[in-house]
Amino acid sequence: MVERVANGWVGTADYIASDELMRIVNVAIALGRPLLIKGEPGTGKTLLAASIARGLGMPLLTWQIKSTTRAREGLSVYDAVQRLYDSRFEDKGVSRIEQYITLGPLGQAFASPERVVLLIDEIDKADVEFPNDLLHELDQMSFAIPETGRTITAAHRPVVVITSNSEKELPDAFLRRVVFHYIEFPDRALMASIVHVHFPNLARELLQQALTSFYQMREVDGLRKRPSTSELIDWVAALLAHGVDPAALQADLPFLGTLIKREQDMAALARSKRWRR
Amino acid sequence: MAPVDRTGPGPSPESAPGLLLFGELFFGLRGAGVKVGLSEWMTLMQVLASGVVRPDLTEFYHVARSLLVKSENLYDTWDQVFGAIFGDGQMPTRVAEELLAWLAHPLPLPELSPEELAAWGRLSLDELRRLFEQRLREQSERHDGGSRWIGTGGTSPFGHGGVHPGGLRVGGQGRNRSAAQIAAERRFHAYRDDRILDTRALTVALKKLRRLGRVGEPELDVEESIDRTCRNGGELTLELRPPRTNEARILLLMDVGGSMDPYIQLVERLFSAARGLHHWRNFEAFSFHNCVYEKLYPKVYGRDGVATADILQGRSERSFLVMVGDASMAPGELVERYGAIDYYHRNGTPGIVWLHRLRTRFPRAVWLNPMPEAWWGGWTTRIIAELFPMFPLTLGGLEDAVDNLVRGRPDAVPDLDSLEKWYSRRDSNARPTV
């Protein structure tokens, strides 16, 4: 049951992962179980799958979940309309149903001759029953196409990464089968190396000052959306593009709009005593 | 740290880390309210036995957590249980020593048949514990080395077969901080689900409050019609069905009396989360002062009330009634005529009767109490908790309340007479006049 991976995933040059995240990714891969990742927006949940794929040299398939997504679509879709059209207007043999069946992302992951990474992004967007509908397929790593009766079984268990923003509760039966990890918001040191990946030539002073302001801002009470990693990256980019002097950051915060996106939050920031200094 | 001595005559229960670990960690987590299943436990054993995990307590901390704990809300509980079992990071406990020693030389996992596993899974916690203790006793009597789940000898995941190489260095030396230190930091305290709520968490919890139904005029389901038509060889097949809508109507009644002052922000947050969620067929909120009498107030400080009787009659009995209040008041305010706290307010009908009418009219009703559960011993609180299913106003409490509202059959309403036994204890003259 426990499959060894020759070289475990250790993060990639453009994705800095904490030690525990590396360990847990490798445990999930070894067990062949889906890895459920939660965490604040901007903690790199979605990027994780891409990094695992690159790090292990596997192709990446993405299944972006929307509120209308149904489990069936991930497996296979039968294009009955095209078939009917062909039967009427094209001189084409329509008795081969296979040609009207398209595999969904999960179906492709099972059918792939090599091991792939499958990202099921934002699973909580879908209907509450959605995760339960996938239980059997994820357990057995196989499914049948109803139109043709053909069964597709995965030659290699795909590495399944599932992200959730906790919009909805996930069912217990689903949770029992996954490896779960909550990505904590990066601490200052980890954040410094994340920023470094994006801006290798960033002056130390500017980085330190930007991080100080950033973490102070996250502490402000009453923010509806605290700035996260992606906002920090945008902000640093803006600071760099305009050649802002790090010393000036102590007095004033230019380009605040890259960090704070809501009007109420701007107001909360203005109110905050901590922030006024 | 002293090397673990394993030169004794054969393995003893003390040298079975899986057994110890199971006893402490599995039951520790279950006892603390983390619903760890046996299959999750077996998965952990499988991983440990496979050698993927190094003999390092920090590594064990993270890997075990990822398999046993499936919500960040429970991370703090995990930290506490972990800290209690594996010590404060200074002195490794026996469980920690045994675990690390085993991880250094994990034994292969015995095959446990799916039937066996299923049988274990069906057991209640008590039965499981009994079986566990029985196995523990058996083990100290004989070492059969069979394929027992908690056995000893080579085929068990839990026992050490034979003499373990001594002199093993134990203790969780993580790269940065030890697991016990991480656990002791309790960084996940903010994610606990029994903590007080923020708006977003409230919204997520409230979203589950829904009553989905297909009602109204049937509409053409375009996609389904196309699909059916094509599968039918082009013969037009129409698929009609009523639209799916959320039928839930919410009636929120909030206590804004003086004793609620400490919780007013929290209640405001609940109100704004509930109102901001354009998710229900109907949402109405009213306030009251300490207890409900003939009038309810659409505005918090308003004097213009709406007759409670009109609310009782005019709102669908299928509405969800959510009461929010500390249920704490002077006894007279609840059970006596003219007992209202406002001197000029002369209520001819005691508050308890109004509460009872509300509860009877709206069978799906809950009471959310912002006070910590430990303080629910007050006289009026106990009576009201008899009448309404009462939940703490925390994330966990709100989720339980929502589950209570949407589940199949609502709780039965106790009749006023049976409530009477409560207040008659205090004062036989306090019988309500209906």
Q: What percentage of the residues of chain A does DSSP assign to strands (E)?
A: 5-15%
How many domains would you count in the coordinates of chain B? 2
Query: CATH superfamily of the largest domain in chain A, please?
Result: P-loop containing nucleotide triphosphate hydrolases
CATH class placement of the largest domain in chain A: Alpha Beta
Q: What are the low-pLDDT stretches of chain B, counting only 5+ consecutive residues below 50?
A: 1-16, 108-113, 139-177, 427-434
Please report the number of helical segments of chain A: 13
Number of domains of chain A: 2
Strand order of the largest sheet of chain B: 6-5-9-10-11
Tell me, briefly, the overall form of chain A: elongated
Largest interface, C-beta within 8 A: A-B, 34 and 37 residues
The number of strands of chain A is: 9
Shape of chain B: globular
- The SS-based structural class of chain A is alpha/beta
Q: What's the CATH architecture of the largest domain in chain B?
A: 3-Layer(aba) Sandwich
Alpha-carbon Rg of chain A, integer = 23 Å
